[in-house]
Fold:
Amino acid sequence: MKTILKRLREQYNYSVEELSLYFNDDENLIKAWESGAAEPTISQCLILSKLYGISIDEMFSGYDIRTAVSPRHTEKLEYEARLNRIANRWFN
Structure:
């Protein structure tokens, strides 16, 4: 995760100082994330995802999940998930 956070910050042209303004002006927090000494909380991940214009999934996976799976395969997975939810209601 640490390399992803640093890569995203650099890709979107934020300095550590600029990014820290969104997190109570705490540069050490950003440095801790990027060194692996700490990880952002879910609420901090939400802020980062909004700043970078990506989903949290993309932030954690490091690639655009919307292009990783074909639309046809996605439809099949969604259909199977719906069937599983229906089956769970019947048998649980």
